[in-house]
Design a protein that fits this description.
mainly alpha
Length: about 90
């Protein structure tokens, strides 16, 4: 959603709250909506001040890094095999 759409939704929630005609459960939901929209708008404003992609153009020039295997690729499992079906003695 764009900032304008979020601000429109907040104004709509404010209007519903200001009329005072909503039942208590709806009023609570409008308040949660308003608080959430305030948090989103504040987050957008905070990130608009610092955009790391604009201030760091040299990132595009770095070579791509990939994961690589280290050591032997064909190591065999050295753990002891599990013996299925052996009786287990439990303490009484």
């Amino acid at each position: 959603m764009t900032r304008e759409e979020l601000e429109k939704a907040r104004a709509w929630a404010d209007e519903k709250l200001s009329l005072g005609q909503e039942p208590p459960w709806a009023w609570y939901q409008y308040m949660k909506l308003r608080e959430t929209l305030d948090a989103i708008l504040a987050g957008q404003a905070a990130t608009a001040v610092f955009n790391p992609t604009e201030s760091l153009p040299q990132l595009a020039q770095r070579p791509a890094r990939h994961l690589r295997l280290v050591g032997e690729a064909n190591q065999q499992d050295t753990s002891q095999p599990l013996h299925v079906g052996l009786p287990i003695q439990l303490p009484m």
